Amino acid sequence: MIKLAADLTVLFQELPFAARFSAAQAAGFAGVSLASPYDGPVQDLRDRLVLSGLMFAAMQAPPPNYTGAPPGFAATPGGEERFQRDFKRMLRYAEVLKPGAIEILTGPEGDTGTLLRNLRWAVAEAPRRVFTLAPRPGGSFLQSYDQLAELLAEVDADNLGLCLDTATAVALGDAPAAVAERFGADLRHVALASAPDRAEPGLDGVDVAGFLNQLAAAGYKGWISADYTPKLTTAAGLGWMPPAPVAAPKKRKKPGG
């Protein structure tokens, strides 16, 4: 069974932040994602998850750079100390929220050697956490799936894999279904996304129903986050969601049984 999460960074923006959790649960999501859960007390966020009966699917690291610099610096030469310091800060949030996956942002520039050293340190520092990488064309050192595949092979860690963003795959000229099949067991998180000027998944040529069926048939067990900007309200654009499974009726006990 697939696990769907609502990315509250973009979904349910028509509601106050505190109300988005229960709205996501009522809409049929089993979890939520937040790219940057660092703005408030982490226990408050955990309490909202528990009260709504939701799991925490995914987040990004490192915490945001409030000076306005591009996010991420895992590939930046000379930035290893900063990477480790902010990574440990992120882990304090992750220990409370228990995300299904954490995407490591590489930053806009750097070199492969620095990135490999930081990735090897990260997966060893937090072996119980699952980390992902994703190409982010136009603003990231990591620009292609070929480059990502080489990094995964070099690090060779069970807790490091791919975050498949469907909009990114389409922008790179790859079908999300083909990317999922190529990476197989290295697939750790999926984001159903759309280009910035579009809305709702599927408008970029992705057969959402077919894609979800493919993931389920392949035995994918990670989270699938809805990560797009709705045209109107979030609820009005959820027609792509599969129907919730119907629980089998309980058998009545026979009298005296």
UniProtKB/TrEMBL annotation:
<feature type="domain" description="Xylose isomerase-like TIM barrel">
    <location>
        <begin position="21"/>
        <end position="241"/>
    </location>
</feature>
<protein>
    <submittedName>
        <fullName>Hydroxypyruvate isomerase</fullName>
        <ecNumber>5.3.1.22</ecNumber>
    </submittedName>
</protein>
<dbReference type="InterPro" id="IPR013022">
    <property type="entry name" value="Xyl_isomerase-like_TIM-brl"/>
</dbReference>
<dbReference type="InterPro" id="IPR050417">
    <property type="entry name" value="Sugar_Epim/Isomerase"/>
</dbReference>
<dbReference type="InterPro" id="IPR026040">
    <property type="entry name" value="HyI-like"/>
</dbReference>
<comment type="similarity">
    <text>Belongs to the hyi family.</text>
</comment>
<dbReference type="InterPro" id="IPR036237">
    <property type="entry name" value="Xyl_isomerase-like_sf"/>
</dbReference>
<keyword id="KW-0413">Isomerase</keyword>
<keyword id="KW-0670">Pyruvate</keyword>
<dbReference type="GO" id="GO:0046487">
    <property type="term" value="P:glyoxylate metabolic process"/>
</dbReference>
<dbReference type="GO" id="GO:0008903">
    <property type="term" value="F:hydroxypyruvate isomerase activity"/>
</dbReference>
<dbReference type="Pfam" id="PF01261">
    <property type="entry name" value="AP_endonuc_2"/>
</dbReference>
